[in-house]
Task: inverse folding
């Protein structure tokens, strides 16, 4: 699976959009991009996934660049409850089912 | 959907003792995973079941570790002769088989402290 690079930490003011970047320059054509987050003392939570088109759900939007070498997770109106570690993961489709987590980005939402 | 349940939430044991953790996945999910997480790190994959078959094991899973999923329902993870380095959060996750998409649902984990 392709390696991802994320900033270790970011801050965001409550009510503003949080834009979390992820680099995956070695991504292959059949690898999906997944985002999970982990709130303190809880297990990770699935947020969104995509292959090459931009995706949106009730939690977030995922923007994938045309060359697929990077992506951005957007939380449109961050709240204090969005404070968490956000993991960007790329995984080959149709292979043995495991997700490989890195160290993620620690997002701190402040008043 | 009652979520993935893990028991116990916390376990304190002395070095050399055996411990067993239990995971109850979401009922219709046929895939079950175990991960381990230490402070400041992301979860590390340990092993994976599809129904009752254990299909993949990480090199992290030494011979002191064993996992089972009898009848393809709940799963247990046993650690024999615990060491201080085994102290970690042990996470269980399950997922439905939805083609090529992996949407994992995690439990809240079992925090193991080995004294």
Result:
């Amino acid at each position: 699976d392709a390696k991802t690079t994320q900033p270790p930490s970011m801050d965001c003011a409550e009510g503003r959009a949080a834009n979390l970047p992820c680099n995956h320059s070695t991504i292959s054509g059949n690898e999906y991009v997944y985002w999970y987050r982990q709130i303190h003392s809880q297990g990770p939570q699935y947020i969104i996934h995509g292959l090459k088109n931009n995706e949106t759900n009730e939690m977030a939007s995922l923007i994938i660049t045309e060359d697929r070498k990077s992506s951005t997770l957007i939380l449109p109106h961050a709240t204090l409850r969005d404070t968490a570690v956000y993991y960007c993961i790329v995984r080959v489709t149709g292979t043995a089912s495991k997700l490989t987590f890195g160290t993620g980005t620690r997002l701190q939402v402040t008043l | 959907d009652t979520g993935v349940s893990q028991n116990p939430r916390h376990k304190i044991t002395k070095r050399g003792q055996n411990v067993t953790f239990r995971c109850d996945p979401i009922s219709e999910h046929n895939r079950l995973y175990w991960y381990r997480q230490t402070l400041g790190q992301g979860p590390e994959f340990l092993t994976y079941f599809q129904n009752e078959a254990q299909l993949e094991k990480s090199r992290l899973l030494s011979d002191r570790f064993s996992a089972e999923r009898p009848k393809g329902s709940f799963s247990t993870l046993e650690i024999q002769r615990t060491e201080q380095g085994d102290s970690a959060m042990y996470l269980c996750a399950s997922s439905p088989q939805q083609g090529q998409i992996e949407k994992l649902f995690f439990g809240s984990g079992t925090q193991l402290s080995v004294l």
Notes: Residues 52 and 70 of chain B are 6 Å apart (CA to CA). The mean pLDDT of chain B is 92. The longest strand of chain B covers residues 88-95. The two ends of chain B are 36 Å apart (CA to CA).
